[in-house]
Amino acid sequence: MKKIAGILLLFSVACFGQQSQDIEKPIRNLFLGMKNADPELVKSAFTENAVLQTITKDGTVKSDSIPDFVASVSKFTKGDLDERIIIEAIHTDGNLASVFTPYSFYLKGKLSHCGANSFQLVKQNNEWKIQYIIDTRRKDNCKEIK
């Protein structure tokens, strides 16, 4: 009985591990695309009608256009934009995933700001895509992420 339980545990860990990698892929591609100044890779991370928002210092929510964000990436050179994240939590239910990532953002090699990202992803055509990002941004109490 213990052997069967062990095999089931290993199988479930392997399955979730692969699912976790699949969910992380568009997030990793977003930041890789930013770092490589590759707007097409950035664009590929999002659903067609994705939403991008930031919570400002005073608590208001500012919306940004995904096409404008993608276009802005092409204005930088490789290595200028470097957002480093730590994936703290992934929660899933069917075709919905929620991912929370503290981050440090570097502009041209210098720490610019930090905060946290909250991603909502959906699985479409057997592929995870970012539907929604909301983040915080601050310049104080930033910890560098390697």
TrEMBL record:
Signal peptide: none annotated. Pfam families: Lumazine_bd_2. InterPro entries: FrzH/put_lumazine-bd, NTF2-like_dom_sf. It comes from the Bacteria. Gene3D superfamilies: 3.10.450.50. This is ATPase with chaperone activity. It comes from Chryseobacterium sediminis.
